[in-house]
Amino acid sequence: MERKSLDQPDETRKFEGLGWADIVTVGGKAVARGHFQPGWRWSVNVKPIAGTELCEVSHLIYCLEGTMRVTMKDGSVHEVTKGDAVAVPPGHDAEVIGHDACVMVDFGEIGEYALRHL
Where is the Cupin type-2 domain (predicted)? Predict the structure, then answer.
């Protein structure tokens, strides 16, 4: 058995303002707890790091706090809020809506999320 706490992450990845992700690796898989402040938007705060037009990461998330709007490449729009478990495929933008921070735990393919690729 392997156990780690997101309160003592292996790594913290800062976004380009308004948030960060605490990451642990357990069982060979990355697990992240993302903290997204009001006003955070992937296309503003992570796109410069990722270097892609849209987020190309597959997420499997559980929302602990707040609300996030996800806009898919096909134009469909979905809201994720406290208590939701959601699978988000690659090809999306996302933004915090409302005045509260959004906190999510991500069990998806996030090992490379918010890593600068040169």
Answer: 57-106
